[in-house]
Amino acid sequence: MKKAIIYVLVSIIAICFFAPFVIMISGSFNDLELFVADPLFWLPTTPTLENYVQILINESFPRWFMNSVIITIIPVMTQVFFCTLIGYIFAKKQFKGKEVIFWSLLAMVMVPRQLLIIPNYILYNYLGWIDTYLVFIVPELWTIMGVFLIRQYLQSIPKELEEAAWMDGATDLQIFFKVIMPLSKPAMATIGTFAFIGNWNDLFSPLIFTTSEEMYPLTVGLATLLDKTGNFGLQMAGATLSFIPTFLVFIFFQKYFTEGISLSGLK
């Protein structure tokens, strides 16, 4: 009886999680020009690929897709490298004020992002970054959460490995590139996956910091489609296309992602 109750609860939770995906995918094959609250209308009676065709031939779609690629791939690469480097310093090196600096940086995460949006906008506007790639790339070069994850992970690696490399005459940079980075692959994959999903799916920042349609990423561009066309099926097709890259990244790095989460203590 107890197991049956658990199975029912798990099934309800699973349905709640999967329902939006089912609506998104089924709606993408439906020729619905207006949003209908009845779920039965989301199931296509005559499935069609017309919504996907309309999006792919939309002249703005390639531009939005390329913008998303640029403001996602560059931060992913820089975060993986810089978070690993800074995390290595905080995990293995000794210097005055190390703990104070680290926990002070980590405390910044506690400030809600929405509270900083106006100061950030004033600063970026002063620097002339509004409606440019810089406003999305420079602030995302590294993140303190990525540093925290790497630091936690590297603390589990024996110091004897570094000492052995020193005895063989390796420099700090050689130890970092030839010992630390190869051993940190699971944590680096986790940072990369988090960074990719976070930047690719970000709607809030591009909505504030872009003023022209040419600089829209997919998230903002697709959100404007419903306002322009009033076609619910078209927007669901766009959401499905936008979802595919994050799904593939998660599947590809799933093994490293799980290991990185487990060994860094973020479970």
Automatic annotation (TrEMBL):
Keywords: Cell membrane, Membrane, Transmembrane, Transmembrane helix, Transport
CDD domains the UniProt entry points to: TM_PBP2
GO biological process, one term: transmembrane transport
Membrane-spanning segments: 7-29, 64-88, 100-122, 134-154, 175-197, 232-253
Places the protein is found: Cell membrane
Pfam families: BPD_transp_1 (PF00528)
GO cellular component, one term: plasma membrane
Membrane topology of this protein: Multi-pass membrane protein
Domain ABC transmembrane type-1: 65-253
Family: Belongs to the binding-protein-dependent transport system permease family.
Protein name: Sugar ABC transporter permease
